[in-house]
Amino acid sequence: FGIFKEDKISGMNMKFSYSGWAPWNPQYQPELLMEQLKDTLTQWFPGNAFRTLDIAASETPAYVKVDGNRLIRMFVINENQVAVRIEDLNQRDN
Question: How many other CB atoms are found less than 10 A from the CB of residue 42?
Fold first, then answer.
């Protein structure tokens, strides 16, 4: 989904999940998906590496990556989904 500001796209919100996810399938858990997404997003958007953010309210760390004016954030939403938000820092509200 696009993030719009003054009729211009300023970012994107995305959700990822494994189609084979089930609570009993350890190979399809969101923590493993985030590791794969880090590799994929680094290929799509080369540059700086992802940094780990420890969030007190979550057992799973979040990841952030900044390249020039692009901010990429990634975190677990629930037991089977990972959210990725890409923002243009030049278009971001202060």
Answer: 15
